[in-house]
Amino acid sequence: MMANVTRYDPFNIDSVFDDLFKGFLVRPMRYEGMPKVPEIKMDVSENDQAYVVKAEIPGVKKDDIQVSIDGNVVSLSAEARQETQQKEGEKVIHAERYYGRVARSFSLGSEIDEAQAQAKYTDGVLELTLPKKAAAAAKKLTIQ
Predict the structure, then answer these.
(1) Is residue 22 one of the residues assigned to a domain?
(2) Is the pTM for the entire model greater than 0.70?
(3) Contact, 63 vs 45, CB < 8 A?
(4) Measured between alpha carbons, how far is 26 from 45 in angstroms, rounded to an integer?
(5) Is residue 8 part of a domain?
(6) 114 occurs within a structural domain
């Protein structure tokens, strides 16, 4: 019996790229009953005093949503948890768990007055009222 022996060539470009891209185009598999990761879909409107953001975040509890404001940048994040279990008598026939996190950040045209900002979550829709900071009046310097 004869074994096939090959010499390793570190400069063989073909094998380097084969190893690098192995599995690169493979997509994660999903099956029909697998829960879908919630997406944050938003509408942003503006008036003279404030921005109003309506973000759809279905299937998430109010306590699992975080909103942060830094100047004119608003960040939303939510953690979704879903557990299902089908029992037949005392035996568990089918059980699934899903934990996922979604986040979205965006910039607005004016800085936000964080102290006056308000958030309300009803029926899967987060509504943010983000008042604009009053623009600082231009200061005139007296030349001496």
Answers:
(1) no
(2) no
(3) no
(4) 39
(5) no
(6) yes
